[in-house]
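The records we work with from here on pair a chain with its fold. These numbers are not coordinates but entries in a learned vocabulary of local backbone shapes. To see the layout at work, look at the sequence and tokens printed below:
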Amino acid sequence: MNLHRLLAEREMPLRVGLIGAGKFATMFLAQARRTPGLHVAGIADLNLNRAGEALRRAGFPPEATQPSLERVMKTGGVALFDDAFALIEAPGLEIIIDATGSPTAGVAHALAAIAAKRHIIMVNVEADALCGPLLAEKARAAGVVYSLAYGDQPALIAEQVDWARASGFEVVAAGKGTKYLPGYHHVTPDDVWGHYGLTPESAAKGGMNPQMFNSFLDGTKSAIEMTAVANATGLTPAPDGLAFPPCGTHELAQLLKPKSEGGLLHHKGQVEVISSEARDGSHLPDDLRWGVYVVFEAPSDYVKACFKEYGLSTDDTGRYASLYKPYHLIGLELGISVASVGLRGEPTGAPSGFRADACATAKRDLKVGEMLDGEGGYTVYGRLMPASASLGIGALPIGLAHGVKLVRPVARDAVVRYDDVAIDASSLAVKMRREMEAGYKARAA
């Protein structure tokens, strides 16, 4: 609760390098320029014009852009790089933020930051879902911090879980809301905009990426984010993955408790995503589409009575209660991670084990020779699985399901396996993922 004071008291601001100049990064920049004790010294993007446009949109004056990081350290401003690794290795930086969204690039950036003794904040939850537990382990061994990004839902959920546990409560369920119907798993970028109430022309005019927005709709992003939450908190998925039950905020405690007690959960301590739409497509009036929640249990009759006295939203027994946050502010809140990592050496959520996996699943019958196109594309969507189940069948993680060719046919809604594709074993991301899998199997044995 003292982060602002600690930032304001710093003689030298926290110096940050930002990789990626998309929407999340631009939102962060808009607030970073107003935050005492924080200096975004460099931005790396393959498109330097996009990096410059992000600064302009965020309110930086034209003169803020400097020709080199050396100049920035003397006079202030921001240096632009078209090489992320040059930014990571540049002297004077303390924290690297990866906001690229590419799982393979994110793994490489994280490893480079760890090698350079920089703290790493992963806006790139795709890379975290692919092999975050191993990256966090390597960061700890190197004496630096690996952190999820505050403002994104996984870190906010991890915060709620930590609050409940630090208050002495058992967490029964935690997760987020989204817009979901079963048919959304098979939506492609060609028909995504109708589900958002947009035309392709208006979306294109707004610079909106159909594949990215489709990953929000087809369940992939939910699988990726709940993988991150499970690996960071110790909560686990149900054996069948996410059920996306329709649930309003007033029903959280009633529905998100075990089936044996009249709820919908497979077990206590579960991650789950709730839908803002009923199965008939009607909208729930008290939805949590943009927010996060936690359900927790009273450990005694006295605490149960306290829940009632203080007006908590509970189930019909009064024993289970819920709290929720209706919105997340994405990049506008990312400074919380920067301050926590830089001032306290504490992540805003970090993987502590390999408990869940986001696995590539066929959107339609796939044929030999087809190329998979990854998150939000035409060929696969992401499915949440327990890590043990994923490894048991050799499932292909969604983060490696881009640009790989099928060597076996895969039926619609079947999980794609490593043996179904021609995988590039020399890829750094593949090597790291295989190392993480081998470590998990060794510990399980």
